Amino acid sequence: MLTNLEHLGLAVHDLDAATALYTTLLGQAPYKKEHVASEGVDTVFFQVGGAKLELLAGTTPDSAITKYLSKKPEGIHHVAFEVDDIRAEMTRLRAAGFVVLNEEPKRGADNKLVCFIHPKSAAGVLVELCQSISAPDHE
After folding, report:
1. In a designed cystine with 99, which of 2, 31, 121, 126 is the match (CB 3.0 to 4.6 A)?
2. Sign of torsion, CA 111 137 34 102?
């Protein structure tokens, strides 16, 4: 079951400039900056009430964020929901007709297991499922 809105992911070209902008806008510094080598992205996280804002910038030409920004403007890239059991949710959503883009969950930023739901099966929105994991990811 989806338990809450975990974060909104924003794709940006210049992570430093976007971080400065959102630090001013939100009146607070980010709580975390992280490089996710497996996805070819750098991320910055802000806590905003009960949810988070994730800024994402591609670090390689073949990263999903770099490819996304080659076709679309900066802005909302995905909506992420926290789940208690990501594998059970993947099974449930596949059975309900959603196109799950991952065969297995993978390690993502901010100490999470993640998977994505294709926008074509979710009213045009890329949906991320996130499950907290106990051991930090040191990538």
Report:
1. 121
2. negative
How many Cβ atoms sit within 10 Å of the Cβ of residue 86? Answer: 21
Tokens coding 116: 């994505």
CB atoms closer than 10 angstroms to residue 31 = 11
Q: Judge whether 51 and 97 are in contact, CB under 8 Å.
A: no
Domains of the chain, start order: 2-132 (3.10.180.10)
Sign of torsion, CA 130 19 126 58? negative
Please write the tens of the pLDDT for every residue from 80-105. 999 999 999 999 999 999 999 999 99
Name the pTM for this structure. Answer: 0.89
Q: Which two tokens stand for residue 62?
A: 């073949």
| pLDDT above 70 (res 139) | no
Give me the mean pLDDT over the 21-40 stretch: 95
